[in-house]
Amino acid sequence: MSMDMTTVGDSGLLDTLQHEVAVFARRAEQTRLGGVGQVRNSMDRAAYLLLNRLDNEGPMGVKALAASMGIDSSTVTRQVAPLVDTGLVKRTSHPEDGRAVVLQLSPRGLSRLEEVRSSRRQLMAELTQDWEPEEREAFCALLTRFNTALSARMAVPPGTDTPPAT
After folding, report:
1. Which helix (H) or strand (E) covers residue 102, if one does?
2. Which of 89, 93, 103, 113 is surrounded by the fewest CB atoms within 10 Å?
3. CB burial of residue 76 (10 Å; 0-12, 13-18, 19+)
4. In whole angstroms, what is the distance from residue 35 CA to residue 28 CA?
5. Residue 151: its pLDDT value, please?
């Protein structure tokens, strides 16, 4: 049985949390947390997430990529088109089914992704330079946990209160 944290928890704390999440989302979108120097804001969020996913999980089809990112195939198709046009992603035929398309990070895409990652890593270091290592670790753990809970919540069918059984 789930508890309603808005009645048993500290509503003032929850109000602060929802406000800070809203401020974070706005600031993250405004700055796109794009890093520092010349690379700052040089890659949009969608491109970064797609390239990062292809790097971490390897070549895959549009449907698999969409499923792994929790978005629909048409969105992936639309977002990947400029990445193919600029040579950051390669489209190849599936080795077992020549009709199917496989998306793969190109060498140029990997190089560009590493450049952006490095810039963003530097930004994170600057933003947390006065934090203790334990604070950085705790923040990462809690933010990961929050994002996981948010993803699970987004998977809940409308009109229900719990995620589907897996």
Report:
1. strand 101-105
2. 93
3. buried
4. 11
5. 84
